Amino acid sequence: MIYEMRVYRCVPGRLPALLKRFETVTLKLWEKHGIRQAGFFTTLIGESNQELTYFLAWESLGERETKWGKFMTDPDWMKARAESEADGQIVGNIVSQFLTPTAFSAVK
User: Fold this and answer.
1) 38 neighbors 3 (Cβ within 8 angstroms)
2) Those residues with Cβ within 8 angstroms of residue 58's Cβ, 6 or more apart along the chain or in another chain
3) DSSP states of 35-100
4) Would the pTM of this model clear 0.85, i.e. be above it?
5) Which of 48, 68, 76, 107 registers the highest number of CB atoms within 10 A of its CB?
6) What is the pLDDT of residues 8-24, one digit of tens each?
7) At a CB cut-off of 8 Å and minimum separation 6, what does 68 contact?
8) Least confident span in 44-48, 71-75, 76-80
9) Is the pLDDT of residue 56 over 90?
């Protein structure tokens, strides 16, 4: 199992718009494409409280490439993204890392 950690740093004041988009659109589209989330978090204390961090679970990098590619080109996603950004850009920066659990990790 491979986990992808994605951190979205929002444009100031736009975190609520990002959370709404995930809640109302993105998660449904992920389900359609077989993308499995492993947790979502906002930053309580840290460098910025305008961040959303989440984890995705993948069987392999190949699975990620196939499913993520289909999601990113889904017309419903492209429409929803454009509509959610009608009032301006939401995300200023995205950082993505691929992680593998250690032998002693509670998460496998």
Assistant:
1) yes
2) 1, 2, 3, 4, 36, 64
3) -EEEEEEE-SSSS-SSEEEEEEEES-HHHHHHHHHHHHT-HHHHHHHHHHTTTS--EEEEEEEEE-
4) yes
5) 68
6) 999 999 999 999 999 99
7) 35
8) 44-48
9) yes
SS3 assignment, position 7: strand
Count of alpha carbons within 13 angstroms of residue 19, beta-carbon side? 12
Q: Tell me which CATH code domain 2-99 carries.
A: 3.30.70.100
Please name the residue that has the structure tokens 């492993």: 38
Q: Which are the contacts of 64, defined by CB distance < 8 A and separation ≥ 6?
A: 2, 4, 56, 58, 98
The string of pLDDT tens digits covering residues 20-39 is 999 999 999 999 999 999 99
- Would you call 2 helix, strand, or coil by DSSP? strand
Q: For the chain, give every domain's residue range.
A: 2-99
